Amino acid sequence: MKTPPKGAAFQRFVTRTGEVERVLEISADGDLFQVRPVPGEGEPNPRGSIVQWTVLGHGRHLFLIDGKPHLARMHRSGAGEYRIDVGGAERIVRAADEISARANRQESARAASGPIEILAPMPGTIIQVMVSEGDPVVRGQALFTMEAMKMQNEITAPMAGVITELRVEPGQAVEARFRFCRIEP
Q1: N or C: at which end does the chain have fewer Cβ atoms within 10 angstroms?
Q2: Which one of 99, 126, 157 terminates a domain?
């Protein structure tokens, strides 16, 4: 197996799967990538991997990770957000360069101090509405189920608060950035 050139420049990316955030250093040479996790405080220095990535088409990808094959379906589901299905286990991964990730965290912290609008991440149809006007919600609580591109997506509360200005009902078609509701802290 080939390896990326010695001394290749690494770029840092921040990935988030659920609530787990990891910083990765990645260098590339064509379709060959070297991926090194950056250790956090108190963590040992993790071993990196050599990843070869082949696009098979129709959302299918073949990853050779340290020589072991992994077939995956991967779809972009928003800005910097990807749905990855490997062996029937689906994960939503958000990836951003280190500077963008820091800016997003700062924006989230600012938004958490006041009301926040819940927007449609993409065009789709509302399948289920799980809250009503005036309902209290907690961070991470499911608010709506939306179908887009034949996949169901759960829209969750990014903060605790009370639902106001609810503007959506089951069966309703929405465009990207349609405002579902507001959450008041």
Answers
A1: N
A2: 99
The distance of Cα 89 from the centroid of its chain, to the nearest Å, equals 15
C-alpha to C-alpha distance for 178 and 169, rounded to whole angstroms: 13
How far apart are the C-alpha atoms of 27 and 34, rounded to whole Å? Answer: 5
So what's the pLDDT on residue 136?
Answer: 94
Structural domains of the chain, count: 2
Ranges of residues in the chain whose predicted pLDDT is under 50 = 1, 4-5, 7
Specify the pLDDT at position 15.
72
Q: Which amino acid belongs to residue 140?
A: G
Residue 138 · residue 158 · CB < 8 Å = no
Tell me, letter by letter, the H, E, C secondary structure of 28-74. Answer: EECCEEEEEECCCCCCCCCCCEEEEEEEEECCEEEEEECCEEEEEEE
Q: Are residues 130 and 179 in the same domain?
A: yes
Q: Which residues contact 91 (CB under 8 A, 6 or more apart)?
A: 17, 18, 83, 84, 85
Quick one: pLDDT at residue 63?
Answer: 79
Beta-carbon neighbour count of residue 1 at 10 Å? 8
